[in-house]
Amino acid sequence: MTLFSSHPRQFSTNRYVYPVLSRRAGGVSVGVNLSPDQACNFRCVYCQVDRSLPPGDPVVDLERLAAELDETLEWVRSGRIFEGPRFCDAPPALRRLNDIALSGDGEPTTCAHFEQAVDLCIAARRRLGVADLKIVLITNATLFHRASVQRAMAALDANGGEIWAKLDAGTEAYYRQVNRSSTPWRRILENLRDAALVRPLVLQTLLVRMHGQGPTSEELDAYCDRLNEMVAAGGRIRLVQIHTIARRPAESWATALCNTEVDAAVERVRARTGLAVAGFYGQMESEA
Questions:
Q1: How far apart are CA 108 and CA 273, in angstroms?
Q2: How do residues 130-146 score in pLDDT, each as one tens digit?
Q3: In degrees rounded to 5, what are phi and psi of residue 242?
């Protein structure tokens, strides 16, 4: 679990690009951190980013990002990454380059150079002869309505990319508790629906205990209602990923669900929506 519970954003001397071993990706995901300044319009109770550290420069150096991406992709593709201490214990089945992930220390679509960064990722695949390598945008969907973000997502669509969007709640009250954002709840739902009308989405949902209390049955049912409403409107959901805390969260009173609770949530969502649902366990029980 140490391999999966540690996702540092630092690698070698890189400023923006970092590899991680990802359970959900099923291999090595090469992350692109477009938020070195830690800018995010969510303040999730489970956030793993250490905001006690000084933020970096908010201006993304696109030339440096491109060079780091080329070098890191080649490092993983060649297998040399598994010779070092950080990845030498990776299971054989996961010793594969799976994707480029636009993610990092905040919401990537807030980056002023988000559209250009997507183009850089697409170009890097072609330069290195891995044009079929998947590019994944991991996002909270708050800015899907912006024209520049829509253009970038269209470029991802045209190049086999995927959108993995967050939805952690079924009600506005719970959204305010978990994600603590000033973005209107209705905006989130509309952005998800509109994006799902254009391409199938992967929805990522992190379930958490707050002060010892997990989401209620009523909250989980409301969450299923939101998914069903999206599908009824014509939206496409390729997969729902339900997971829980696997790394140290922002709030000490935010803790992971146990494995049986994750399993129960997966079955509940699957039964009430008919969607494909995958569950991912947290750190605590797996390390016991």
A1: 29
A2: 888 999 999 999 999 99
A3: -110, 120
